[in-house]
Amino acid sequence: MNLVLDLSFAGFAAVVDGADNDLATDWRSPGARYDDVGDWIEGLLRQAGGAFSELDSIAVGVGPGSFTGIRIAMAFAQGLALPRNLPLYGFNSFAPLLLSCESKLGDRHIAVIPSNAGRFYASSDLHETGVMAGTEELLRLANPETTLIIPARVTQVEALLTGFSDVHIIEGKVNATRLAKHARESNFDALRPHYLQLSAAETKIT
């Protein structure tokens, strides 16, 4: 059994088998607390008919996105994988969006994750950590050939929705099997987070 975990914006966790068949998945709305992440994942493993002792590998989202969510996910994944010598794979926050979009209307797909102060993390590439962009910058990319992919319909993205003719909202519909396969094949470091900006605590320190 293989665990996939991403808390960079909304919460997503999945258990897939060795053939990348989806055994169990769960999705939590943006802003959810994760102080119960251990119980959450244990319940998901039970739903899949397994336990922590039966894990063969772990794939974890390394950002960009929520500082707290990324840290919790990575610490939890490392705490499971390292003592057991399990393979630990990383993937960026855009991979769950880009790999789960079923829209065929646009030739170009842009995955966008809300940040703060009207800014967004954005990328069209599964293998890059993306850029920070404002609403006007992203709207300049809007055209009939471009599909906007967002994790959920939240207040922060409302200003973008009118500019793109094709919008794909993922919410709980993450393709866990494609994500698990991509994580194994990507070169993302699962031990180093990708924030793109300093956290509030780090800003005060510096």
Question: Can you offer a commentary on this structure?
Answer:
It is a single chain. This protein is of the alpha/beta class and 206 residues long. The chain has two domains: 2-93 and 174-205, Nucleotidyltransferase, domain 5; 95-169, no CATH class. Helices cover 28% and strands 25% of the residues. It is built from seven helices and ten strands. It has a five-stranded mixed sheet, with helices on both faces. Strands 8-7-6-9-10 form a five-stranded mixed sheet.
Largest sheet descriptor: 5 strands, mixed
Order of helices and strands: EEEHEHEHEEEHEHEHH
> Widest sheet: strand order?
3-2-1-4-5
Can you tell me the number of structural domains? Answer: 2
Reconstruct the topology from this structure.
Layout: E1 2-6, E2 11-16, E3 22-28, H1 37-47, E4 57-61, H2 67-84, E5 88-91, H3 95-98, E6 108-114, E7 119-123, E8 131-134, H4 135-139, E9 146-150, H5 158-161, E10 166-169, H6 176-185, H7 200-205
Summarize the structure.
The chain is an alpha/beta fold.
Note the main attributes of this structure.
Nucleotidyltransferase, domain 5, alpha/beta, 5-stranded mixed β-sheet, about 30% helix, disordered C terminus, single chain
